[in-house]
Amino acid sequence: MLDTRDILETIQMIRQENLDIRTITMGISLFDCVSDDADRLCDKIYDKITKTAEHLVETGCDIEKKYGIPIVNKRISVTPVSLVGGNLSPNGFLKVAHALQRAADTTGVNFIGGYSALVHKGMTVGDRNLISVIPEALAETELVCSSVNVATTKAGINMDAIRLMGSTIRRAAELTADRNSIGCAKLVVFANVPEDNPFMAGAFHGVGEPDTVINVGVSGPGVVSSAIKRAGDCDLSALADIIKKTAFKITRVGQLVASEAADRLGVPFGIIDLSLAPTPAVGDSVAHILEEMGLETCGAHGTTACLAMLNDAVKKGGVMASSHVGGLSGAFIPVSEDAGMIAAVEKGVLTMEKLEAMTAVCSVGLDMIVIPGDTTEEVICGIIADEISIGVANTKTTAVRVIPAIGKEIGEELDFGGLLGHAPVMALKTQSPAKFIHRGGRIPAPIHSLKN
Amino acid sequence: MKAVITVTGKDSVGIIAKVATACAEYDANIVDISQSVLQDYFAMIMLADIDRLSIDFSLFVDKLSELGKAQGLEIHTMHEDIFNTMHHI
User: Fold this and answer.
1) A68 at the B interface (CB within 8 A)?
2) What residue of A is the nearest CA neighbor of B46?
3) CATH number for the domain including A414?
4) Which site in A24, A162, A166, B48 is 20 to 30 Å from A8, CA atoms measured?
5) How far apart are CA B76 and CA B73, in angstroms?
6) Is the reported ipTM for this assembly greater than 0.90?
7) E strands of A178-252, at which residues?
8) In this structure, are A155 and A236 located in the same domain?
9) Is the pLDDT of residue A1 over 80?
10) Whole-number Å distance between alpha carbons of A172 and A182
């Protein structure tokens, strides 16, 4: 029987604490589109996506209405394009980006991910050709997202790929300099990338996935933050319990929406991604959760410990609420997309070094960080190498999404608008890691990868 | 299956009657009402059986929401499953 208090709690979560389903992402395999001709491949890709995801957006809106909970994004992820376009020229790969954009327009989704390559151990000709046009693809399209996996714990770190990504990120920023270097906000460099992540910009449809799948990403930093506030001065064991219970409730809603979407669309349910995904809106910040836990400002000493506990409690609470958990699953700490993170950077408390430490204990990595426009390729490569090493050594996913703000210096700001938010340009060490980066080759896999 | 209808806003004569009339019009059978008025603020949670609803549920959600707007009230209609899923294992 329904209890009035339960009803009011749910309604409060949705209306006052910004509880929402962050994304329903349909994964679509493109392997059956393979063709030796670029135009033919593009036609097949467009036809498959528009047919498979024809009802995705309307189904999402319908479920949103039925349960009275916002489903913020409806998205599509596809097989990494370098795998289906193996023999294409750079120009051919660029055509595929436009085909994906057209398919996104037709289906009405917010983003389409999978303009990707998996190069953790080495690069094929197709991988190289795709990566060579990523900057153009991101500049010429609006909704296409790109990711490149440059390392795994099993394979080690492909430093040649990291070097290539340093220049790719710079070029993506330069080509979109007139639009706040937006190209870089749609490009992620990964270590240990998950194949079923529903969140952008890193979503793609992995090679071990079925033909089509529904993955759902939940959210709810505001709900967790409010629950901690209500708990008052309890000790950390009690706090961990409160976070777990809240994460359980949030995830149950995600599971409900995912099962219903999968049923209605006749597509298998894949996973729920248990992530606390912030938005720039007031009351939807992961940094504010950490501050509610007892920090004066996010970035202060103690931040990593708070985040580690939060991340662990979210997973423990969420995992029982869903039949399958996957993706990134953890707290996100994107700077520009989180009002509390932005404020902490502006105060000078949250620095690049602290963010890097935080990524060792939560999901993803250095995310949506604006860096000076004159940052060299080698320094960007150094940032990537450091972050990727954390992922490889700790057998976890890490990623880098940095945005060189062309023509801007420390203290100035980039404003992307919408869910991507705004962020001040952050200070970096400018000493050169060039010799290390130019050595090239692979950093061998860590000893603990040898588990067999 | 049931719908949870929440109505909030400034108190006035006939709020329950208007919501109940709309429910009757679309064959939603009211099974429970919990209502309170704090000073001038009206709050109601209504539980309605929607098994025999004569229109699509999402249309029913819109109709009640429109009624709310016309009366200066907030009316939200949600399927009971979201509450059951969140609060019961």
Assistant:
1) yes
2) A4
3) 3.20.70.20
4) A24
5) 10
6) no
7) 187-191, 212-218
8) no
9) no
10) 8
